[in-house]
Each structure stands twice: as structure tokens, then as C-alpha cells.
Amino acid sequence: MTHVAQPLGGPLLTRGYRVLLGMAGIALLLIAWRFAAGLGAVTGLNDGYPWGIWIAFDVVTGTALACGGYAMALLVYALSRGEYHPLVRPALLTSALGYSIAGVAIAVDVGRPWFIHRIPLRPDLWNLNSALLEVALCVMAYVIVLWIELAPVFLRRWAAGGETGFTRFARAATRGLNRAMPFIIALGILLPTMHQSSLGTVMVLAGPKLHPLWQTTFLPGLFLVSCIGMGFAMVVVESSLAVLAFGRRPETPMLGRLSRAASITVALFLVFRFGDLAVRGQLGALFAAGRYSLLFWLETILFVLPALMFLRATVRRHLGALFGWSCILALAGALYRFDTYLLAFDPGPGWSYFPAAPEILITLGFVAVEVALYVAIVKRFPILGGPSARSGRVEVTA
Amino acid sequence: MRAMRGGGADGARMTGGVERRDFLKVCTMAAAAVGLPASAGVRMARAAEKGLKPSVIWLHFQECTGCSESLLRTSHPSLARLILDLVSLDYHETLLAAAGVQAEDALHQAMDANDGKYVCVIEGAIPTREGGVFCKIADRTALEIVDEVAARAGAIVAIGSCASWGGIPSADPNPTGARGAPQVLEGRTVVTIPGCPANPYNFLGTVLQYVALGSLPALDEQGRPLFAYGRTIHEHCPRRAHFDAGRFVLEFGDEGHRQGWCLYRTGCKGPQTRANCSTQHFGEEPGAWPIGIGHPCVGCTEQRIAFRVPMHDTVPIDRPTPPDFYPPIEAGGGGATAIGAGVAGLVLGAAAGAGAMAARRLSDAERSTPAEPTRAKDGGEEP
Hints:
Chain A has about 400 residues and is mostly helical. Helix content of chain A is about 70%, strand content about 0%. Chain A contains 14 helices and no strands. Chain A has helices at about 15-35, 40, 55-65, 70-80, 90-110, 120, 130-160, 165-205, 220-245, 250-280, 290-310, 315, 320-345, 355-380. In chain B, strands 2-1-3-7-9 form a five-stranded parallel beta sheet, with helices on both faces. Chain B has a two-stranded antiparallel ribbon with strand order 4-8. The longest helix of chain B has 28 residues, at about 340-365. Mean pLDDT of chain B is about 85; it is low at about 1-15 and about 370-383. Classes of the chains: A mainly alpha (about 400), B alpha/beta (about 375). Chains A and B meet through helix 1, helix 9, helix 11, helix 12 and helix 13 of A and helix 13 of B.
């Protein structure tokens, strides 16, 4: 490891931080209300649309945006591109936070949460043909793996200090972890490969309820490829935000090279997607009138533009442009997931869904918790590496 | 039946002039019809070719022969194929051509020849009061017969509710002290196929598995094969959607009855009755089962319901929706509300604005390095 990660330090309870905590508090109250009064009281869900933004955003989009850790692990460990190593740890942290929050979101979303403990605890009740079970188990396992991958960061701090039982434990755990880490990293690459594709499988099961422009047996593959592209984009976004919020020195050249990897992934995604449409004989649907073809083209444009822009040296040299186009790439992936899970999903006549205000506020609260935890952890633990900070600046809350 | 037994094949030809190829087909079809693997069919055929058809001894006690009648109406395999090709039915009081001493001889010869290997099928309840004098065959009581025949059997199958737990003969006040085979043969494994009549495919599935694989299917605590009795009628009822939606038949012939709504309120015992009638209809006639023809399930497979709970009384739901103090699981949300749309707009707008601001500030921060005017792209962030 050539770079040294350092805790940022600095005061925790800034004004922006209090806003985050406030949003989290509101969400917590609404979640309590949801558990007391049921889903109908706080959501726009119904029997036609049994999932809404909690699944489409918090879980499906959220875990894909949290694929930074997966994408970086693929790049650094599987493809041995060690130069990106400084980006791995912050990416892992956002992944761990994103996946943990997604797990909580599922517990809030399921209709009968009093059965949810059965997923990890009652293997005798497992339905081994269920794609959702695969997602649930994989996500649970991956959350654990992510925190183990991050554990050395916490252990190092805890191992410092006097000779107490706790510090001795931390040191022993560090030694054990170092030996096990290659296997854990391998798991950390295997598990997202499994469940990100299964998130696509789930909608294959929706059959004709999903519009033919999206419905394909290759949906798992498309979800997998697009989540890697989103992961790269989010690494750029997070790194840029760290420049703004914590006054870090920009890592623009590295991020520029990374954006090229994103371009390649997007190209692969588009080839697969259009190839699949051609194989299924659905290319004609691209030119049909109506909102579905419109949504499809919007997605495609949002995918294509950043991919093309990342090929331009001027864009790769400028953090502002890199950040903007990475946001748009992440948005493209998010729209693809929203389309697949909600907008191109038609459960039949008479059903409609739009998120209710409390539902949105709970989702916002989840995001706020995620950001708050991220800020707290990078200030207290060695996550962000590379060149040291310029003078401190207030963080942004977006 | 003796005459037909041991009709072993000399390679190409089978009993009654059936070609080997046809015979393999029969075996495979029989296996498929009852949910056994196709290889089971081949094994059955091989066993039959070697003359190893399992001997079946079928006892009748207090019953109406409805279960045998129901078995006569199967066609995959047909009864003729079953008893001539697949098994060797050595003793069956209603199908037997022989009578009197001849019939008794057939029973004892079959028992001696296949000691410990034959399948003992019991149809009908066994009277136990006053020494069991209410049912006697060849001067022996049903109790004596069942004790002797079952003791030397390889497998015991009780077909129908009477043999499984007593059935109609055991209904109150049960003057003959009628009991089912498992109660009389305590300590022995008795596969029970309750039903009034039992669905013949559940019986065939069990017997053919024993024939082909030498094993018995997984059973519940009442000896019922789980493949057929693992779920309640209610759990896989074709009218379940009407139950969930609250659309009930209130009396026979009303509007809901004509529309095929749920029969729960006319006394359907489906929620308490474990059986597969709703997926395995009778006589291979689609819809031929009580609920299919518009009558509530009477719970004929369940000892605690059939002939005890009045036919049109409702029963509690076995596994109901969650208790009332749990949060409701129904959600009746619908389209966009003004507040929801407003909040969504605010959030998206704030995100787009913050993104654009961040991009601008990043670009500003980079001013020190020579920059081309690429900032215009930042604006069109969120469509």
C-alpha cells in the first residue's frame, strides 16, 4: 500500500450534520408509525404494486449505486490494477453503508416483517426456487463481508492505546483477518455478482407484466453489467464530493482513467441490450409511439452521452465535468432500474402507484443516515487516503 | 386372479399378448401419472418381466366399496393394466372370480408364497366391539383377519377414510366400535389414504412407488403421504381468490353461487381439510370434485370433521391472516397525491440543484489549471 489513509478529524456536529440527523429523526418516527399502522398508512403501495420506491430506490438502485466497492474490487483485485487502491476503501465504506441501509429498507418494506427473522434463522423453511430468497441471503452475506473487509480500519484504531483486553482482541482479530482477507475479498466479488443479477431475475418472473423493451431472460446480465458501470460512476461522484466537502485534493487523473472503465462497461451494456432486443425481434418496439419507447430512449441517451464524454480528454481532465457526467451515468442506471421495477411494470388495469409523502421522507431519511454515518466514519477512522487535505470546508448535504 | 398371476414374459411378449414396448409405455405412464420419475416405470417393467410383480392382498371390511369403485375408473393406468400387468392382485373380494373355499385358498396361497413381501390393502373400518362379531368372513372376524394378514405383509396401505380412521361406520354412536387400521394395528406403519372415496391416484402413487422403488412416500403423523395431504384444500383452492376478496356464496343458487364464489360460508371445510382434491380431480374429469361442482368440501379426509361436524357448519380458518393487533398487511394506496407529488418534486429538484451546484464549484475550484469552457454541460443534469 503506497498511500496512507488518515482520519479527517474535525468537529462532528456541524450545522449540515444536524440537518441530516433531523431528517433521520423524521424518518424514524414515520417508520415507527409504519410498524404500528401498517404499510397502507404511510405508502402508496397496493396489491398491484406491492413494491414502490423503497424497493426500486433504496434496495435495487441503492445497492447498484453502492456497487462502487464491487466495481473497485473487480478492478483492483481481479484485474490487478493496483494504482486505484486509494479509491477502494471509501468505495467499500459507501457499499457497506448502502447495503446495510438496503437491508433495513427491506425490513421496513415487507408486508409481514414479523416473519423476516426466518430468512437467516430457518433454513428448513427456505424455498430454494425463489429468486428473492437468493437476493435476501446474498445481500445479508454481502453486508457481513463488506463490514469484515472494512474491519481492519476500525481494528487499527481500537488496537492503538493501552494494554487492555479490548486492544489485545483487536490485534488478534487484525492478524486473523489478514490471513483470511483474500478469501473474504473473493467472496466480496462473488456475492454481488450473484445478487445483482438476481435483482434482474426477480423481474424476469414478472413475465408479461413488464414491457417487452425491458422484459428479457437476459435481464440478470443487464442488471449485472449496468451495476458495475454505476459503481464506477459513483466512485467518481463520491471522490468529487469529498473534494468539495472535506477539501481533499482532487484525484482527477485517476478518476479520469476510471471513467474510461465506465465507458467500456456502458458500451458492453448497450451492445448486450440492443443485441438482446434484436434477438428477441423487439427492435420495432423502439419506434412505437407511447411512453415506453420514450423512456427507453431517455435511458439510452443518458447512458450513451456520459460514455461518449468520458472518451474526451478534456472531460477526463476536469473534475467538474467528470462529476457531472458521472452523475448522469448514475442517473441512467437508476432510471433503468426504476423503469424495470415501476415505470415499465404494468400489473393490470386499475392499478396505479405514486409514492406517498411519508414514503419519500423515509427514503430521504435512509439517505441521510447513510451520509451521516459516512461523514462520521471518515472523520474518525482512516478511510480517505491519498494527498492530505487543504483547509477544511463545510460539507454539503446532498 | 391366480390364473393371471405369474404371467411372466419370455422377453418379447407379456401377459395377454401385450408387446414389451407397449408394456414399457404403460409402466412409464403409470409412473408419470402419479409423479414418480420415468426411471421408475422402467424398473416396474423389469420387475414384471422377471415375474416379480408384487402380490397385493386387498381386504374389505365395513365399507361401501366406493374406494374400489373409484379405482376402477382410473385410466392412467387403467385398472386392467394395473392388476394384470403391474401388480398381481391375488385377493380382492369384489373383483375375485372365485368364491367360497376357492377364494380362501387364494388368500392363503398368496400369503405363503409372498411371505413378508406382499402389499396388504385394507378397505373399510374394523369393528372392535363385542369381539368384532359385526363383520365376519370365512368364520373369522375382521380383527382376526387383519391381524394375521397385516402381520406378514411388507407394506400396509389403508385406503379410504373408513380404513384410515373409521369413516362413516365410526360415526356416533358407533354401534360396532368401528376403528381404522392404524388404530387396530398399533405399532405398525400403515400408510393411510383417507377420502370418501380416496382419490385413486394417491393410492396408485403410493403402491407404484413401493413396487418400483421399494420405498414408501414421506408420511405425516397420521400416516398420510405428504405429497397428497401436505396442504389444506383452502391453500390451493381454485376459488381462493373469492375468499380473499370477501365474495361468498350465502345460499345455494344465489347470485354468488352461480358466479362460482367461495363456499366457505355455506360450510366449506377446506380451511381444515388436508387433501389434494383441488389439484387432482376425480375420474380424470376436470372439475369433478365437490367444490368444483359447487358444493362445499365436507372434510371427508379428516377424522375430526367428516361425519362429526354438520355438513354446512363453518369451521375456523386453520392458518388465518395475522392477529388483529399486528399492523394490517393490506395497503390500499393508489395514484399520486398532491403532497406526494410535491415532496417528490422538491427532492428531485433539490438533488438536481445540489448536483449542478457541486459540479460548478468543482469547476471553479479547478480554475487554476487551464480549462476549456466545458461547464455548460453541468446544467442539464436531471431531466
